Amino acid sequence: MKVAITGATGFIGRELVFKHLECGNSVKILTRKNKDQLTFPVEVQVVNGDLSDAGDSLPSFVKGVDVLYHCAAEILDESKMFKINVIGTQNLVNASTGIIKHWVQLSSTGVYGKIKSGLITERIHPYPYNNYEITKLKSDEIVEKAGLDNKFTYTILRPSNVFGKGMKNQSLLQMIKIIDKGFFAFIGKEGASANFIPVENVVTALVLCGQAQNAKGKTYILSDRVTIELFVSTICNALNKPIPKIRLSKYLVKLFTAVGQYIPHYPLTSSRIEALTNSHVYSPELIMNELNYHHDLTLEEGIFKLVQYYKSMKKF
Asked: Among residues 16, 229, 239, 255, which is most buried (max CB within 10 A)?
């Protein structure tokens, strides 16, 4: 099988490249980096190009491709999000029409919005709340429309918080550091949700979405969930540290954070407080039932691996 991957130098895309190489597939990537800046094996075909540039690079990138994985997105720079996440997706769709067989779109559960409790399934109407999630939903809608117009088949995968070695988002590693130093305290009521998914599981799901016939035209949520208490205790056990016993009022913590946000390196934000206290659950039931997906790593196993990575980083 011939696959093409955008975002291949990113956290998830890079793991996907190596997974397909292990499967014996031909892999092509689109990147703005020079080949001498890359550390992929020589068999990976590199196409230099930019999603926001509808030039010759995109037709070259998609030529002869069976499955295209669209993993590229602008996450940090809001001034570039529409250009890359929306216009870039449309440019790639235009180049792919009638050329590729199947498109796998890497999305995010964030498009469902700020839901604080309850079970979230694919039937929930998306309600994105920030510029990144708004542009990601627009990107999904462009792909879905192309699929409905029979330009190619498609599958959309929406993972929750993806973690693992090499991730750019440092909030989980910062949490491990705080627990390691003995400064962590629980916030609010017991039983809040930790909705995460190891990167290894995301790659497995992406490959399934690219190969399974019954995945065509579908959108899937991918997540795993434990209570925040079990999540923290798993980290503590991996660190050989005692489990925190202090529990603070959510109301008081929010008051302190309103002032603390002006203090350099203050660890809490309003979004992190919500992440530590929400009780919503993202359901992976549909992808499990329809594609026979199962977690390669449990959430606890993934966290243990991440803590080992954290320990190795402390040595430098």
From this structure: 16
